[in-house]
Amino acid sequence: MFVGESGCADALSKYEALAASLPARQGLGITPYRKYDGFWYPEHLMAPTLAVRDTFAARPTDVILATMPKSGTTWLKAVVYAVVHRGRHAPAGGRHPLLASSPHDLVPFLHSFYESPRSAPPGPLLEDMPSPRLFAVHTPFTALPASVPGSGCRVVYLCRDPKDVFVSLRHFLDEIKPGGSDIPPFAEAFDQFCGGVSPFGPVWGHMAGYWEESVARPGEVMFLRYEHLKEDAVGTVRRLAEFLGCPFTDEEVASGVPEAVIALCSLDRMRSVQANQDGVHGTGRLSFKNTAFFRKGEVGDWKAHITTEMAQKLDGIVEEMLRGSGLSLAGK
Ligand code: A3P
């Protein structure tokens, strides 16, 4: 249940105070991190994340997309939006909302509703949204809104090879840094990442949390891999639609609707959309052009940026930390 408008503002003040008391350190980019319950959060998202956790009321029809930053969030948002809304918006149609708006505007981050609760109280905004509501989070599973487990809403997690996540993150942070500022040197950033210090990291803890939940509650939490979405886009999108309770009909399959979803959401198509070229994400000092979300979109791009020794080091750490979780990224 939502607290009222002033309640939301109060809730944020409370969490701002808590956030300010948490351990802090320099991050991989220009934003400092705060540590909460074993995970590192970009400082500006700490209080909103905690406010979301305590006040967001999930509906059984909600869909929550969860990712580590740079795991393909933008792609997942586009795909899920296209799948869920295909009855109203034909994926092959030329007037699809994804051809006019950023996936980040169509599927907002939950924390974004809480970043300025005083000027735009999140409660009414969220309550007025028609079902099914689609949201995204970078939050670790343990910090998801308390109302999510047990609500019946669906959670879709997209996992990506941590080496590609690191390389993608590095490019992204370099791209979005404000003029005149510097991000830490590459080797230092890599060591931090291997030590578990990354936005919403450690990466292994983030993945394991959702993996274990997908095993325990497969009807409510789905664990996807970026690499599988690349390899078998149609098969993955069909499984996704089934999980979301809106499987493709035989007629849709025969007429190529899953393929149309994939084509609509492809990197090249998304990159060509005006809103993804000129639009801006975020606010104030932490705003940047939407173009930063679209780079190469390849599996294994890490090979062009980190040495075999570095790759072995990170793979070894991830494998070791995932031991016992039942999740293995080896060989993928
Ligand atoms: P690279 O930097 O490796 O190219 P996020 O959306 O979580 O910020 O992740 C960004 C990564 O996803 C970037 O990876 C980006 O190029 C890739 N990406 C964005 N849109 C994509 C799409 N439609 N298909 C495949 N990859 C996509």
General description of the model:
The chain is of the alpha/beta class. It has one domain: Rossmann fold, CATH 3.40.50.300. It contains 15 helices and nine strands. Strands 5-4-6-7 form a four-stranded parallel β-sheet, sandwiched between helices. A hairpin with a 7-residue loop joins strand 1 and strand 2. The radius of gyration is 19 Å and the shape is globular. Adenosine-3'-5'-diphosphate binds next to helix 3, helix 6 and helix 13. It is an enzyme of class 2 (transferase). Its EC number is 2.8.2.-. Keywords: Transferase. One of its GO terms (molecular function) is sulfotransferase activity. It comes from Panicum virgatum.
Keywords summarizing the entry:
transferase, P-loop_NTPase, 10% strand, three-stranded antiparallel beta sheet, four-stranded parallel beta sheet, alpha/beta, Rossmann fold, 15 helices
Write the layout of secondary structure elements.
Layout lengths: L4 H17 L2 E2 L7 E4 L2 E4 H13 L7 E5 L5 H12 L18 H4 L15 H6 L6 E4 L16 E6 L2 H15 L9 H9 L8 H14 L4 E5 H6 L1 H11 L6 H5 L2 H8 L2 H6 L1 H5 L1 E2 L6 E2 L18 H15 L10
Parallel strand pairs: 4-5, 4-6, 6-7
Antiparallel strand pairs: 1-2, 2-3, 8-9
Helix pairs in contact: 1-2, 3-12, 10-12
This protein binds adenosine-3'-5'-diphosphate.
GO molecular function: sulfotransferase activity
Organism: Panicum virgatum (Blackwell switchgrass)
EC number: 2.8.2.-
